[in-house]
Amino acid sequence: MTETWLLDGNRVAAAIKEDLAHRIQGLAARGIVPCLATILVGDDPSSATYVRMKGNMCRRLGMQSVRVDLPAETTTEELIAAIHKLNGDSQVHGILLQHPVPSHIDERAAFEAIRIDKDVDGVTTLGFAQNAFGFADYPSCTPAAIMAILDDYNIPIEGKHAVVIGRSPILGKPVSAMLLNRHATVTTCHSRTARLDEIVRLGDIVVAAVGKPRFVQGDWIKPGAVVIDAGYNEGNIGDVDYESCFPHAAAITPVPAGVGPVTIAILLKHTVEAAERQARSIR
Predict the structure, then answer these.
(1) So where does this one cross the membrane (predicted)?
(2) Which CATH code, of 3.40.50.300, 3.40.50.720, 2.60.40.10, 3.40.390.10, is assigned to 140-260?
């Protein structure tokens, strides 16, 4: 068996950000600064860390970051009002509502309040539908990151059997659609799928997005398969048992430094694209 490729997400993200830096400079010359607004409800420490990371990345690239912090007791109506205020702000190009929100909030209603041209995280049902049809401006960021990694490493997709473990509306389902639109044959599974290990062994490309630490085992992986670990669990642990899967795979993403940094880069890319669309509309 040939040596396993380590699919380095930091390298892919760096290439995306290098391209963005030139585009941001071009926008700045026209007096436009791409702006991402992040909304954090409550004081979950992990969510606060993610929001801070995204804000820091914006600043390093010369983008603007607007942070909206709301108390944990915020109601659905109050959250939606805050989103509508950002919708109406022409200086804000992208809106990110940090997931999860407190359980008493109708998260889906809040997502739906985000204007489609500012839905840079791909969380609305309209954005989901556009992605399924293959023409979304801003597909969900983690699925788009997975596709970016496959493309950067020139991993063939057409004609391959992709097995996706996970069915969330912002990861498993949209990445299944994106792979299908690229002419893969796609099987979408989940943690309750019967004989899951047997199905995974059929996959030329395996995407783990089930939200369970070290869930995918090495003897599930067909020799020579490409393994994409889109999971992130406490302790920097993915959904794939990396040590047991590595010897079977032709290529594999690590956790951390795999899909995660590319996801953030895609979010910033979508925000820059939204600013570019606004610039074209005001010529």
Answers:
(1) none
(2) 3.40.50.720
Encode pLDDT of 29-48 as tens digits. Answer: 999 999 999 999 998 888 88
Instruction: Give 31-115's CATH code, choosing from 3.40.50.10860, 3.40.30.10, 3.30.1490.190, 3.50.50.60.
Output: 3.40.50.10860
- Which entry of 17, 54, 173, 269 is annotated as an active-site residue? 54
| Known binding positions | 166-168
**Catalytic residue list contains 54:** yes
Residues at the binding site for NADP(+) are 166-168
Cis peptide before 256 (omega within 30 of 0): yes
The verdict on whether 160 is a catalytic residue reads no
Query: Taking Cα atoms as reference points, which of 163, 146, 155 lies closest to residue 228?
Result: 146
Domain with CATH 3.40.50.720 in the chain: 140-260
Known active-site residue 25: no
* Alpha carbon distance 271, 92 (integer Å): 9
Which of 8, 17, 98, 229 is flagged as catalytic? 98
d(CA 63, CA 24): 7
At 81, is the secondary structure helix, strand, or coil?
helix
* Sign of the torsion formed by the C-alpha atoms of 233, 66, 274 and 17: negative
Active-site hit among 8, 119, 121, 204 = 121
